[in-house]
Amino acid sequence: MSAEPRAEQRPQFRPVPKALKYIFGLGLGARAVLMSSHLAGWLQDRLELASPVTSWTRMTEGLSLLDHGISPYEGDMFHETPLVLMLLYCLSKIWGGLIPIFFLLVDLVTGCLVHEVGTNVCRHLLEKQGRHVKFYSTDSLSLLLTGKQLNSVPRLMLGAYLLNPLTIASCAAYSTTGLHSLVIAGALLAAVQGNRLLATLATAVASYQCVYPEIFIIPVAMYIAQLEQGGRFSFRDPDSRLSLLQTAGGHFAWLGFLWALSFLPFGSMDWLYSTRGFVMLAPDLTPNMGLFWYFFTEMFEHFRIFFLCVFQLNAVFYVIPLAVKLRDHPMFHLHLLVGLTAVFKSYPTFGDAALFLSLLPVWGHCFKYMRNLFLVVCMWLYSIVLAPVLWHLWIYYGSANANFFYAVTLAYATAQIFLLTDLLYAFLRREFHLRHGPAPKEGQGMPILMNLK
Amino acid sequence: MAERGPTLLFSVFFCLLCYVFHTVASTKDEYSEELLIIPFRSGQVYSHFEFTTLWDVDFAQGGGGRYKLQHFRLFPRALGQVMTEYRVQEMHLTLTQGMWQQDKWGYPVTSAAPGAELWAWFQQEVDDVDQAWFGLTNALSGLFCASLNFIDSTSTATPHLSFRPQGLAEGLFSTKPSHLQYATLPRENVCTENLTPWKKLLPCSTRTGLAALFHAGQLYNTQYSSLGVHLRPVCRNDSCRDASLELRQVLSTVADPPATLNGKQDWSMKRYFSRSLSGPCPMAVTSRVYVDVTTNQTSSFTLKPEPTELKLTNYQGYNRKLAVYDLWSFPFHKEHGLNVDMKWKKEVSYKELFPPRLYVHRFVTGYGQEHGGIMSLLYNRHPYLEQQIIYMELLPWFTRMYLHTLKVETTEGNLVQPLLTRYTPGRDRQNPYLLEIVLTLPPDSTTRISFSFERAFLKWTEYPPDANHGFYISSAVLTTILRQADNFTVPPHMGSGLQSGLFHSSTEFPLRLHTETLLISLPTPDFSMPYNVICLTCTVIAIAFGSLHNLTTRRFQYTDLKKANSGGMRAWLAQLFGRGKHATSEDKLREPGKESEDPGEESETSEENDYIGEQRELVTPRVRAESDKKDR
């Protein structure tokens, strides 16, 4: 977040393609420098950057277990998926130096994907605006998108991803969160391009890797159905339903294929419990920036299962009301889901939130209706700075206790929730103004205010 | 003739009775009791009691290594029934208070881990080892008043290399590696409540014989005190065609006379056991007291009364002189019994002690409560012999071990390549981490084994009452076979009884060493917070849920402030501060007829605008300005 305003400035003042080169150069340079510095080791153990699922220490342990001929899924030290494990195992066997290059490349590719997502979503929004403009109020011209955004927004997004200190630190920590961002960005890109085969594959890869993107399939299916059906799309229409089912079927077929592929290296499905089961049951109560750890540390034993269900449902449930409310805007829905899962997942890291932040510029046209942006930025900065400080006070100096760190994670979650709900509010309000004009018609002073009914 | 009838009948009856007794008594058993006293150079005095019951059980009776223990004579029935029930082939239980200091005291007769340590081999026919183990631990827990019932899967492991069967393991007794179960309870406190049931297993209890010396108050007022029960099948004779069941009950203590007396190592039974011996246990075949007088070359102490015998042993050039009191031949006086009394001429001079050839120390490394490390130093002080050892580490699940950080190197920095590494990763709340390494220690070297671990965060209910005291990690075990016996207190004995160890001439000496237990602290949550945390976290979730619920189930519309004005105090305030969006009074809501599903069709505003228009005149400019500002 903190890098974003800076990145926002750059392309506006220098709208030259060179800007891209600068962003790439700066982003990669910062990552490379940080990786080679002695800070890298410290970053690897930062639990804000690396959860038990994505931590590089655990990945190293997994690789070492493989070396000893022990399945990493036999114990409880390794929770990354088998395909990623095999990939990194091969890389580390070929040449150890490939690992940092791999992580650099992952972030680079994610940046490019985010850039492409920006271009495609902007184009999609403009096209959609073209189709719908006849319904808009004649007064709301000032609210319309312009072609200029096609240039600036993707660059902003690229900058927001590659120059965000959180992604830089996350990359230098070799956290596989970067990989998670890559597959999610891939899913977003494939979704916006509207190719069913590719989109279902991409969402399957994303949900194979990070579990929660499973819910992405709902907006993706709606988007594809709307592309196919045009204006005739409705949940009651049999054709639309067929299209939705086809997409869902494609997704699960791909997922089944990926699972079958993961069966091969170890000849068992134990990994499913260690990856998916681990994320769903959240047995590891190591602190992270999420809401699960302290809640389940302090939970009464007989309510544990109940609240586990509630928390996991909470992470995925919003897809349904949003699908109804935002049925004409599946892309916005999809982007909101990226943010929502980044807050409510069981093992979140800064990297997850950073991906959502880099998607924000696409919705820059809604920002003027946002209410708590300043508060959110302050809370973000507060939690990013205080999290490591209070962690050290608790764990190393013993002068603080768990509540201090817990307070930071609460503030962090609240900030993200404010940001998400505010964005949704701004989006809905802009949609309202597009149709009803930016201010009530027949001016001359009306006692009129906005209200939610 | 009439008189001979009953006599004949009686004779026949007598013969029958003899036959019955014979068949019952044909399962012969034998009991011996021994005590070894060694004054250490470091000033402490070691007393080691060993009570051995050998029982020629008919193993083949049950088929396989299965035995059915019946008709108990000397063998304790309570234990025998447990062994039969859970089909235990070999069982070793030690309950220890204090830490054996290898570098000062050499090697103990039987090494034991601080706390409770239990390992058992089950018979091959046992199908559900976990079930049998669960039953055994619970039964022993009741039998010895120890917390052995707290042994569960999180503290149990199946080491493949370190704990081989100590008795017979072939033919009838062959078993599977999976039938070994090993567990420790490093936090177990051992005291008189464990001693009382233990001594009840002895044939003479504590009424007579060596066991008469057990006075709990004295036994536990020592630096080290260890109880042991060891059960194993052994060869009945040299040909080893038949087997016997051997029960060894062991009690060791290390007293520290110089600390309590005027710096002298004076030791006597009366002082340290507050009793003297009145005679042997009538059931015992052997009843002996050995006092190691090897260090008395220069008559530095006097031993009273005179021993019945002085014995010299020599293994591999290492001489040992033992004073033996055979209780069967000792002339016990009616008034006072046998009180072995050592009187030293001088105070103990604390000079340099020579640690044994092989010993080990273990430490916790690192700081903070996030990560940590364990480091063991393995000393091989032999000038030219390499030593092959098995090192075993059993870590509880909450210290998550990183195998990739395992490093074996000498203190000079040369890497030592382990010959074999066996690692079983742990699972949270299920299995411990088990590491076994086979390596060769170079001669005259110190080898360092180190690795790091991650401290887990437990649920608040999983912490013990004194959470900040920390958690104990059981001692690591070093197993090896030494080729020289010069450091042994008593060379380990393959045969039964102490004398087989004291006076034998083997060339291989199996050795097991236990390291220090470790105490590590885990990060703790705030135990007073459950309600607060549940409330606060749920509030944050409610913020998300409430906002999203609000935004997805309601829609925007323009509201008439004039109408809002009539809504009372809140509306008035809203107007005053220009925050009309909070006004929710009934009368400013739209009529339900105007609902429309699709936002696309929501744009018909004529009615709404008319509705708004009616109020036009009533606007005050100030409010409009504020409302415009808000929209911007």
Automatic annotation (TrEMBL), chain A:
Keyword flag Membrane: yes
Record key words, sorted: Endoplasmic reticulum, GPI-anchor biosynthesis, Membrane, Transmembrane, Transmembrane helix
Record-level GO cellular component terms: GPI-anchor transamidase complex
Major localization class: endoplasmic reticulum
Keyword Endoplasmic reticulum annotated: yes
Compartments (UniProt record): Endoplasmic reticulum membrane
GO BP: attachment of GPI anchor to protein; GPI anchor biosynthetic process
Bilayer topology annotation: Multi-pass membrane protein
Record family assignment: Belongs to the PIGU family.
Protein name from the UniProt record: PIGU protein
Taxonomic lineage of the native organism: Eukaryota, Metazoa, Chordata, Cephalochordata, Leptocardii
Designated gene of the protein: PIGU
TrEMBL record, chain B:
GO cellular component annotations of the record: GPI-anchor transamidase complex
Acidic residues biased stretches: 598-611
Keyword Transmembrane found: yes
Alphabetized UniProt keyword annotations: Membrane, Signal, Transmembrane, Transmembrane helix
Keyword Membrane: yes
Extent of Basic and acidic residues compositional bias: 583-597, 613-632
Annotated transmembrane regions: 529-548
Region Disordered: start-end pairs: 582-632
Listed GO biological process terms: attachment of GPI anchor to protein
Domain of life: Eukaryota
Signal peptide: 1-25
Name of the protein in question: PIGT protein
Organism of origin: Branchiostoma lanceolatum
Gene symbol of the encoding locus: PIGT
